Amino acid sequence: MLYIYLGVDPEAVNSVLVREEGRRQYPVYYVSHILKNIETRYPILEKLALASLMSARRLRPYFQAHSVQVITDQPLKNVLENPEHSGRLAKWAIELSEFDISYVSRIVIKAQVLADFLVDTKESSSSHTERPPLAWTIYMDGASGRNPSGAGVVLINPNGIKLEQAIKFSFQTTNNQAEYEALLAGLRFAKELGIEHVHVKIDSLVIASQVLDNFETKEPMLKKYLILVRAEVGRFTSFTIEHIPIMQNTRADELAKFGLPLRGATLEIFHPAIEEG
What we know:
This protein is of the alpha/beta class. It has 9 helices and 11 strands. Helix 1 packs parallel to helix 4 (88-96) and helix 6 (175-192) packs parallel to helix 8 (220-233).
């Protein structure tokens, strides 16, 4: 069983996918959809229905592999399971019906920190905030020499809340290639969340030094990766990168080597980033 917590603000709809181990819940993935045009005028229940739909689309492998409980403080079940609805709500309900989804009142929320996370995210997305920007910290690691190889990404917001993503590569990688793929995945993950300020911590001295222009990049393949990384870096308002010892990067290393303890919870990448487009 997986759980989705929904949140809505005037500019976006958000959701957090969490897994449960024992009596604790851990964030696995976060989805944010910026509202456009007519979407900004949807009633609150339709915005929540849209949040459910965007979550199912973006996290389809999770929804296909697991039963999912959608947790909200609104009567979303009545809206999506009402046969009298027509138009977009009816279409959304049909699309969601292929998954094993149930709807639960938010009063049973076990991890209050997740609700706080949604509030923090909504506040940080507001154009009216005057608080100084705080950077998210991104830990990442790539693991080559395994079949398949993989990567792990851990994002930590300024309040200490963590999001994790395990990645499996369906192609052979060198050690440095796996590290670059992990770095790109982490940066793209952060940008998908609407994050503007990032501080990357990576245990590869080679990659950190190449990004900082302290080491010359001679290998043609790594030059291509460096170009992609710099393009991603340019999408952030601020970016810093720091080399750290391996012992400070243990969680990202575990995710890279062993994935998440849930069937279907690991993101699979089929082609190297330098072959995209």
